[in-house]
Amino acid sequence: MVIEGLFYTEEHEWAKVKGDTATIGITHHAQELLGEITFVELPAVGKEVKQKDELAVVESSKAASDVYSPITGTVTKVNSDLESTPEQINQDCYNDGWICTMKITDISTIDNLLDSKKYEEYLKGL
Amino acid sequence: MSFISNTKEQQKDMLAVIGSTIDNLFSDIPAELMTNEFNLPKGLTEQQVRGALAEIADKNYINLTCFLGGGFYDHFIPAAVYSIISRSEFYTAYTPYQPELSQGTLQAIYEYQSAICRLTEMEVANASLYDGGTAIYEAMMMALRVTGRNKVIIDNSVNPIYRVMIDSYTKNLSIQLEQIECTDGQANRREIFKKLDNDTAAVILQNPNFFGCIDDFSDIADAVHKKGALMIVSCYPISLGILKTPGAMGADIVVGEGQSLGMPMSFGGPYLGFMSSRMKYVRKMPGRIVGQTKDKLGRRSFVLTLQAREQHIRRDKATSNICSNEALCALTALVYLSLMGKEGLKETAQLCADKASYAYHKLTAIPGVKPRFKAKWFFNEFVLDLPCEAADVIARLIEKGFAAGFPLSRYYENMENAILICVTEKRTKQQIGMLAEALETCL
Fold it and tell me: Where are the beta strands (DSSP E) in chain A?
């Protein structure tokens, strides 16, 4: 399941961009591969990351995966609901399952992301 | 028969490919450790081997009256400990690799973890680590992960053997390690607070410290927490029968050597590292953790839990390379603690303290023998200054049948005459009197 209007990475993160703000999460495909998610290690608010830097860690019963930042920016808000109900990522990865919001400090990093069509094609090729 | 599976020709071919020589491949080993000849005599019969080994073993002094401590202690071990741990259902050195199949082993580890939590007054314990030294190193690394900082302050009255281990573990890591010299046998608050800043990940302390002195680190915990750092306390589990626990002082990670809980000193191992912490840090903890749950029929059962911390899942980002535990030693500790019970442990600790106090008064009454520190609070070890070099006196006392103590000059400067003496519940009034007499004649 891929949502139109979002940006994607080949590591299966999504970013919803509005002005200089991005909301970040992992894709439907990613949560499906991980299985039942049991823990999310959220980034600290104020953390500055470059595109492809480690941003968060998502743990399931069978794996622990790094979530890489799709853009270069600063973490402004985290979804602290995930601390008690990490399964929100399985249930609704594009809405309630968001991980954090970021202020984009290098807007050109968006150009490196895939749009929904390209990501869908990429998934087919896997 | 050759145990090397390739021929000289093949070796030559392989070396030609990499452009090296055999000697070159071993060049990292210092020359003085290399040898060209091995003392490998012809085979002997089993009976001859036993005779030869017994002869070597006879060179050990095994019947010395032990006043030697320094992190490893001569406590009484009830015979039932061995009987129980020797049961074939239990008898393994490791966490099982098909863990949930071995419910009994997992239950024992779970109960061990519970016992360590109660003993240290902490919220969560792991399934054990190799020994007290590796446990303190793992605690330090855990604090670095929790805080994302890089500086560690360590009191130099933490067991010097542990500090040597930390040094070698961290030699190639970029950790800023600040050692603070203790003052009059106590953690030096002024210096610790001076070094404590917002880059500090942890302050590492020990209670009772290597000199046997006891302390209450509650004030240090407050200061450490104000800076967002963690307080790590290494402790002597038997002492917790009567002393204020690290948990009550506000420690964030508690570690220690578990040998005193039912394990013999046995020339250096196998020993037991224990670790407990606050629940909020559990995901940063190293080692295995057993959890209690229910199976699909609703029956109480046990599992290895929070495994995403470990290297078979998290690979290079694992919290530690520890992927097993000291299962048999942890079981020993559990069985020992269960047999002693709350009251038994208290009584043992009280006996140690009382007998040590008696020995302290007896020994300091000898002309020329003085207490090293002004502070009089100790658990079952204390430091005395002799009128001559401690190592010489200790050597003379071995001939008289005593392992009289530890010469502190081995690890500390300006302590040539200082001896660390330990008294456990096993020592009798008569033995203490005999030590006092022998010491007086050896000065």
Answer: 7-8, 13-18, 21-26, 37-41, 48-49, 54-60, 64-68, 72-78, 100-106
B111 shares a domain with B161: yes
pLDDT tens-digit map of B417-438: 999 999 999 999 999 999 999 9
| B166-216 pLDDT, tens digit each | 999 999 999 999 999 999 999 999 999 999 999 999 999 999 999 999 999
H helix runs in B187-266, sequence order:
189-195, 218-226, 246-249
For β-strands B253-257 and B230-235, DSSP reports them as parallel
Taking the CA of residue A98 and the nearest CA in chain B, the distance in Å comes to 21
Distance CA B240, CA B43 (A): 51
* Spacing of C-alpha B359 from chain mean position: 25
How far is residue B407's CA from residue B110's CA, in Å, rounded to a whole number?
Answer: 39
- Taking CA–CA distances from A61, the nearest residue in chain B reads B308
Q: How many other C-beta atoms are found inside a 10 Å radius of the C-beta of residue B105?
A: 20
Query: Both B313 and B414 in a single domain?
Result: no
Residue in this structure with the two tokens 């399952």, named with its chain if needed = A97
Cα separation, A45 vs A22, in Å, equals 14
Q: Which fold has domain A8-109?
A: OB fold (Dihydrolipoamide Acetyltransferase, E2P) (2.40.50)
Asked if the C-beta of B314 comes within 8 angstroms of chain A's C-beta atoms, the answer is yes
Instruction: Find the residue in A nearest to B314 (Cα).
Output: A64
Q: Please state, in angstroms and rounded to a whole number, the distance separating the CA atoms of residues B158 and B238.
A: 17
Under an 8 A CB cutoff, do A60 and B314 touch?
A: no
DSSP letter at B71 equals S
Q: Which of A53, A55, A59, A68 to mutate to test the interface with B (most CBs of B within 10 A)?
A: A59
Interatomic CA distance for residues B436 and B397, integer angstroms: 11
Return the pLDDT at B323: 73
Q: Minimal CA–CA distance to B67: which of B417, B393, B414, B412?
A: B393
- The interface residues of chain B toward chain A in range 290-309, judged by CB-CB distance below 8 A, are 308-309
Burial (CB < 10 A; 0-12, 13-18, 19+), residue B1, is exposed
Query: Are B141 and B208 contained in the same domain?
Result: yes
Query: By the CB < 8 Å criterion, does B283 face chain A?
Result: yes
- Taking the C-alpha atoms of A39, A40, A45 and A49 in order, what is their torsion angle to the nearest 10 degrees? 150
